[in-house]
Write a structure and sequence with these properties.
heterodimer, A: about 90 residues, mainly alpha, Protocatechuate 4,5-dioxygenase, Chain A, 7 helices, B: about 280 residues, alpha/beta, Protocatechuate 4,5-dioxygenase, Chain B, eight-stranded mixed sheet, 10 strands
């Protein structure tokens, strides 16, 4: 189990509607308040579900993409691909 | 002396509130009837105190403070923070601090170490079953939050021990009150994982049969072997284990099973027939 604390904290905080509103309006300003590692921040900016799924609790992951306005279909398509990505990783050793 | 007068279990799928209409009318009617039957059983038990065992979906607790189990000992509890539940009549929910404190003291005396909270927020895990049952007025609630969200979690065996403890605490409470327990969550479902939306009906049905017919050790063996593969939401069956052991593992009755893929959850509902009047 691997958890990125500050990424998790970001997702946790965005459960508050006003915080989610601010994030949608100015994502970079909000991200600047969290000491995210560069690769983690990049995964956030790129909306990389596969990478983010490795770093946070799955409930928080889902909350986050709801909070930023992604559709259920958008999220399901990507989260369901995380299995094949993990399998590819194993295959590559 | 207090007495345990009812033990119940209910799923709490959020999409029951957020996407009720996603399910067709016939199946909505079916699950509504199950909720009505569950409500009838709860009301018939006439509880003076209702213990509700549910997870915390990242509302009260976070990675900086993540208790395995927490008892709500407050005079009141705050209603759900989810924006999509603000229409529910649960802005403030009465607690039962005297019984809750007794439960906490009994736990500590018996070698259990719960966290305590004097003001919990009760998220959808608590309020969706209460709302859908429509019990009005609610008896005072003693919430017990069990971490079934973020590993590591209480062992399944420890959950049974907690159920035993809850029963012992009820029996030792020196006031003549009727206490019921409602476990929420489960059955199979997966949220935010690669198999999100998958319902494992075979697991769910076998699980019910294990609760109905198996002894503790076979039930534990079944869950230890199969629970993890039934999705991360199936971890909430820990709460059912607490109700089950509080009921001394007897009288399990499945009131309804509604595996609705539109809501992502194999929704299960149960009562334990305690033979109490």
């Amino acid at each position: 189990m691997m958890r990125d604390y500050w990424l998790s904290k970001l997702f946790f905080d965005l459960q508050v509607p006003a915080a989610a509103d601010e994030y949608r309006a100015d994502r970079d300003r909000v991200l600047d308040r969290y000491p995210l590692k560069p690769g983690v921040r990049l995964a956030v900016v790129q909306e990389d579900v596969t990478a983010l799924a490795e770093l946070v609790n799955p409930y928080l992951l889902r909350f986050y993409f709801v909070a930023i306005g992604k559709s259920e279909d958008w999220f399901l398509e990507r989260i369901r691909n995380t299995r094949s990505a993990a399998q590819d990783e194993v295959a590559r050793g | 002396m207090a007495s345990l007068v009812g033990a119940f279990a209910s799923s709490h799928a959020p999409l029951m509130a957020r996407a009720w209409e996603a399910v067709d009318a016939a199946r909505r009617d079916a699950i509504s009837k199950t909720f009505s039957e569950l409500a009838r059983r709860v009301v018939e038990a006439k509880p003076d105190v209702l213990i509700v065992v549910s997870p915390d979906h990242w509302v009260n607790f976070f990675l900086n403070n993540l208790p395995s189990i927490c008892i709500g000992v407050g005079e009141t509890h705050k209603g759900p923070p989810e924006p999509w539940l603000q229409h529910l009549p649960y802005g403030s929910i009465a607690g039962h601090p005297e019984f809750a404190a007794h439960l906490a003291r009994t736990a500590l005396d018996e070698g259990f170490e719960p966290s305590l909270s004097h003001h919990l927020e009760l998220d959808h895990g608590f309020v969706i079953p209460l709302w859908k049952m429509g019990i009005d007025p609610l008896p005072p609630l003693v919430p017990i939050i069990v971490n079934t969200i973020e590993p590591p979690m209480l062992s399944l065996r420890r959950c049974l021990a907690w159920g035993d403890l809850i029963r012992a605490a009820i029996e030792r409470y020196p006031v003549n009150v009727r206490v019921a327990i409602l476990a929420t969550g489960g059955v199979s479902h997966s949220i935010g994982e690669h198999d999100m939306g998958r319902i494992d009906e075979a697991f769910d049905r076998e699980c019910f049969e294990q609760f109905r017919a198996a002894g503790r050790e076979p039930l534990l063996a079944f869950l230890e072997q199969r629970l993890e593969a039934a999705g991360n939401g199936a971890a909430e069956m820990r709460n059912w284990l607490m109700a089950h052991s509080a009921a001394q593992g007897k009288g399990f009755e499945l009131l309804g099973y509604h595996p609705y893929p539109e809501w992502y959850v194999g929704c299960g509902f149960a009562a334990w027939n305690l033979g109490v009047r």
